[in-house]
Amino acid sequence: MGIKDENGYYRITGRIKDMIIRGGENIYPREIEEFLYHLPGIKDIQVAGIPSEKYGEEVGAFIIRQDDVNLTVEEVREFCRGKIARHKIPKYVLFVKEFPLTGSGKIQKFKLKDVGLMMLKEQGIEAI
User: Fold this and answer.
1) How many domains, the chain?
2) Is-contact 93 64, C-beta < 8 A?
3) Does the pLDDT of residue 107 top 80, yes or no?
4) How many CB atoms lie within 10 A of CB 84?
5) How large a percentage of the chain has pLDDT more than 90?
6) Distance between CA atoms of 107 and 40, rounded to whole angstroms?
7) Whole-number Cα distances in Å, 125 to 64, 81, 92, 103
8) Is residue 12 one of the residues assigned to a domain?
9) Which tens digits make up the pLDDT trace of 46-103?
10) Domain range holding 27?
11) How many CB atoms lie within 10 A of CB 50?
12) pLDDT averaged over the chain?
């Protein structure tokens, strides 16, 4: 996916297959990732859709914290409030040690959904 600016240049904004559709709204994970990289304490982040019975998908943020930083779920959400649209604020903030990778080292975003569902279930949260 991309957008064309007023000068005729294209800027890549993400991949269609990564797009989150929440209640009819198209949400681009890369936009949220780039925003959250400005939050101190985040080493790496991936945003993916978590299946939802009510909305189809909810925004899930999978965060690798910087060493010796104790970033909380509420700090992440508070950083977002008033700065990005409400429907883009991650409903699920999950702290992970690593992302699922292919043999060549690329992140497997489609597996993040499964990881998210498993982590939520461990916390007693039923997403779907």
Assistant:
1) 1
2) no
3) yes
4) 15
5) 73
6) 22
7) 21, 23, 10, 31
8) no
9) 999 999 999 999 999 999 999 999 999 999 999 999 999 999 999 999 999 999 999 9
10) 18-122
11) 28
12) 91
